[in-house]
Amino acid sequence: MPLTMSTSVAELLKGETLYAHKKSERILTQKLISIKSYQDYASILKMFYGYFHPIEAIVKKYLKKDVLKDIDERRNSLFILHDLEAINYSTEEIPLCVDLPKINSSLEALGTMYVLEGSTLGGRVISKMLMKNTSVVFGDANLNFFNGYKVDTGSKWAHFLSVIDQYEKSAAIIVEAANETFNCLTKWMERSL
């Protein structure tokens, strides 16, 4: 879908990443609906930490406050460690993904952040789904990561999209980075879960 005067960068991203997004979503959904124990949940959390933690370190090299003013307030992989601790699982020796998306600029970092930040929306849906799980007890103490920004999730997402929309001339770079981020995540899930 080419960028037109009526298409925002955010709309373009949503359309152009749909296939890669759905592919990773299918794998994750199957694992989420089959959770029968905290061990099952811990494997999902460790998978996310193994992917998000190294990516966040790279993104922070390229995304500074002049691009995304609230970068330091954004959800991060430390939330996953809190969830693991809440279910009494070790946070040591979690395997980290090395097949990461190529991030060498703030534009590529924004494309990657589109996936990370978008997961806060999906996380809210996942959180509600997990709360209905009859095999495992879920609550605020062990859903820090999936709860995203809680009531502020929508406004944080809207702010992020408003930042992305400022880069109309660089939309192709942002889209490519977002797709690569989804594709690397899918490969990591297939290996880790």
User: What is the string of helix and strand elements?
Assistant: HHHHHHH
How many helices? The count is 7
What is the overall silhouette? globular
Biggest sheet record: none
Helix content: 55-70%
Mean pLDDT: 96
Low-confidence stretches: none
Sheet-strand content, in percent, reads under 5%
Distance between the termini: 33 Å
C-alpha Rg (nearest Å): 16 Å
Describe the structure.
- The protein has 193 residues and is mainly α.
- 61% of the residues lie in helices and 0% in strands.
- The protein is built from seven helices and no strands.
- The chain has helices spanning 9-16, 18-33, 38-62, 78-86, 106-131, 153-164, 171-192.
- 36% of the residues are buried.
List keywords for this structure.
193 residues, mainly alpha, 7 helices, 61% helix
What is this structure, in a nutshell?
It contains seven helices and no strands.
List the helices and strands and how they pair.
Layout: H1 9-16, H2 18-33, H3 38-62, H4 78-86, H5 106-131, H6 153-164, H7 171-192
